[in-house]
Write a structure and sequence with these properties.
Helices cover 23% and strands 31% of the residues. By secondary structure, it is of the alpha+beta class. Strand 4 and strand 5 form a beta hairpin. It has a six-stranded mixed sheet. The protein is globular.
């Protein structure tokens, strides 16, 4: 079960949050999977999450989620590997 963006905007604390940097925003809004460098660059942020966990994706400088996805690797692996796809998107604006 994954919440819609409408529900996430009403209850933003229901899922772990990750933030992508400004360079990744246009790709996220077109439905692309999120790559590791978008989360590990200076504008990106991650909470401690495990592989397979559902997360909300916010853009740098915003509060509300712009996408919902599933982690394909843990946050520790994202920082260690820093290559490839780390979130498969399910919903996006």
């Amino acid at each position: 079960w994954l919440p819609t963006l409408r529900l996430l905007h009403r209850v933003p604390t229901m899922m772990p949050k990750v933030q992508v940097d400004k360079g990744a925003i246009k790709f996220v809004l077109r439905g692309a999977s999120i790559m590791c460098p978008g989360l590990t660059s200076p504008g990106g942020k991650m909470e401690d999450v495990e592989e397979g966990e559902c997360v909300q994706v916010t853009a740098e400088g915003t509060f509300h989620a712009c996408a919902v996805g599933v982690m394909t690797m843990s946050s520790a692996d994202v920082t260690k590997v820093n290559k490839g796809i780390c979130i498969d998107q399910i919903h996006f604006l």
